[in-house]
Records
---
Amino acid sequence: MLLRSLLLVLLCVGAHLQGYADDGYRLWLKYDQLADAKLRATWQAQARGIAVEGSSATLQTAARELQLGLQGLLGRPVPVAASGGKGYIQLRVAADPALGKEGYRVVSEKNGLTVTGPSEAAVLYGCFALLRHVQTGQLPTKLNLTSQPRVQYRMLNHWDNPNGTVERGYAGSSIWKWQELPEVIDPRYQDYARANASIGINGVVLNNVNASARYLTDEYVRKVAAVAGVLRPYGIRVYLSVLWAAPRVIGGLPTADPLDPKVKAWWMARTNEIYKAIPDFGGFLVKANSEGEPGPQDYGRTHADGANMLAQSLGTHDGIVMWRAFVYKAGSGDRFKQAYEDFQPLDGKFADKVLVQVKNGPIDFQAREPFHPLFGAMPRTPLVLEVQLTQEYLGFATHLVYLGPLIKECLEADTYAQGKGSTVAKVVDGSLEKHSISAIAGVANIGSDRNWTGHPVGQANWYAYGRLAWDHTLSSEGIADEWTRMTLSREPAAVTAITQVLNQSRNIYVRYTTPLGLHHIMGQNLHYGPEPWLAQSARPDWTAVYYHKADAEGLGFNRTATGSNALALYAPGARQVWMNSTTCPLNYLLWFHHVPWTQQLSTGRTLWNELTTRYYTGADSVLWMQRQWEQAKPALDPALYTDVAARLRVQHREALWWRDACVLYFQSVSKQPLPPGLPAPTRPLTEIKEQVDIYQLR
Ligand code: BDP
């Protein structure tokens, strides 16, 4: 008997020391016991219980999450009560004009910690901030965590279809099980809500921008209402992408002309029905007259006509319309300029509830783009910044690419719209042009995979997006550090090794795929792997040669006054930075200039030598990433370590693929020898082309 008990104890201890295989499901909300006993004891004294004033669903949710987190982290029960004495954490809604609607305060007071905010959601955010503080191993002394979001609508956009597929999704299928809804509520919806609320996301678009009209039917509205019911206590509202042609497709009308009274009445009636089922419905996202989607231009109307009609259909409901500016017509000049040409003249013509949603760059979520010229150019229209978290052009779920730096780079870019310091962030948060509404959107990278994002480090991109949506002044490095501590390990050497990888990963990816400002040279349709030789497609602006313009003389797209003159779309201060090919920052050089192969760059190398050097050093850097990851091994869950290590091996193989494909192809045009010291690829271009064909399933 004694022996059996002893064995049992040993088994339990063993299991505890090893931890259970970490399948990534818990994301950064890991509430494993703090290893440091002193730290635990200090917090235990501050968290004898939780006292919550009020019984609303959101406050109860906040208390439950705090309880769950603290019990795990501190390793002992933390009761929740209506009131409590010394050492109880008080949760309270309290008016505080300095905090806006959603800001929180977590402070140490005489009797213990208090978490307050002007709304229930604010208190929930405060609880997550407190948990983050404990999780990252910080002390409670003189606690004063105060923060409020800089952007009002912080959106996560799904590109999910009714049949469960996810457009450009690389982490399994959709998490939304439409066929089972509204009766079956997958418990995963709640964990999804927790994750989003923990980083401050307060709105989700449930379906693809290439929308099915189905979502507007009564049948689907009931399903959407069921999801909204799960998300509501977490301060999250639901939104829908709409198909512009819905009045024809499901409404039985002969037209979807926004100025047609019957069309207007149809939208108004549909909207009212939606609000009956979902009183806090957030509104609509629209992709119109883009990539074959229908839109108001089909009837000779403008984007503003369409957006305003839809805004009108919202009536007095508290909803908004996010109208996407991602448009480019076949055969009408430099694609870089087209969204600008369509939308800029409409500035001032949009109704109050309309925001125009603009991708971070002018082409399409490339690994590095200059900021979109519409930022700063539509002062009378609130603009939503849209970034892509799913790695469509960044190696899917195979390549480790932390997107914090990419998002930050765009937010910090200076539009010079109102002189120096007119950053994209200030345009987006509304402060530059004094807008009363502001929004930011991230295209989700999650799916039904157990670990949500396929690549375990993809979770960092969801996390970083949310944190930056809340506060764009946070640093990308700080967020990487926070995420690593919460998700992977708090062991200092491991944190350093891993965060170095995260922080460098995007630049490394750019180097081995599209250095010096190359863009859109990826495999056709699938958008994976290199295909710089692609010259034939349904439209010229879907080929690679359209963008890199490699010829015997040089490489790059001339967008100066002697070329497409896209640079003229930027304010003089911004344009100035890129205008001159000898002073243009090298990261943007080929975005704006056609540069002779033999031109000497600021690095002292010729364009050709710099280009090839970047491809080689970029691919080699993946080996450095592997070594760093290996250094962190002792501190990591073994299964997770192995998974990422394997993905890094694929990443290296594919970095070499990119390198060899691009170096050999551009060499076939430049006729330049490789600089001394760089070994020639061992396979011919023909072989690589065949490999690409296999990838593309052609
Ligand atoms: C492109 C994607 C396409 C999307 C489109 C969009 O390839 O699947 O529908 O963006 O944003 O990058 O509408």
---
Amino acid sequence: MARYSIHKLREWKAKGQRFAMITAYDYPFARLVEQAGVPIVLVGDSLGSVVLGYDSTVPVTMDDIVYHTRAVVRGTEKAIVVADLPFGSYQASPDDAMRNAVRLLQEAGATAVKLEGGSHVAPLVHRMVESGIPVMGHLGLTPQSVNQFGGHKVQGKTPAAAAKLLNDARSLEEAGAFAVVLETIPAPLAKMVTERISIPTIGIGAGPDCDGQVQVLHDMLGIYDDRRVLRHAKVYANIGGTVRDAVREYVAEVEGREFPTTEHSFEMDESTLNELSGV
Ligand code: KIV
């Protein structure tokens, strides 16, 4: 079965057809999100915070992304799989960046790569696209720069910052990016960017007028029910609580000798048992 082409996104934008992207980092969840109808799966470097236990995306490595992308590719048949270029994998040199992007397509099986930044990464985006690597951009609150921003703050709020973001989006479009994520920016600015560029915008904390939306799976599933959920995340389930309750019940049944029962056990012939009586 062929995967969706990245060109579908422009088709959807032209038709005004909204689309959902979601993160996944392993085989079972990749299967589930595709079965739920998600056409684009992002192996985001949010992996660091929601799966690997780091407090930011900064420590995530190329090997981490390659490992998790391979599992997501195995778990999907039709979805476009976008893999994040992690912090440090494209900043040091364009040649390094190219090698790492190629690795995500060749070794991990991703359809496309995503990287953060505007005009300053546009020449790199252009080189990747010219070499056959589909690139998704990422503007606004770019988590790899969280130390630079000094926290999770709404971006593009001043006239200068909003104009810069608009120009960055245009630079990515001109460089050949096939879509751009807009993270944590005012909704009216996201609407303006969406109307002024021809490539689809995918919002997270960017209001309802982007062409598509993206959410971090573990936030929307309520896996961490004891951690602060950012305002842009909508919690659709309480999987954390469900898992904890199920495991608690298992622990109680083992301790109470209620599990396993004969239903979960295997029998042995009486005659075989008798033969063992003298051993
Ligand atoms: O890493 C990630 O999950 C992302 C999304 C928040 C867009 O980049």
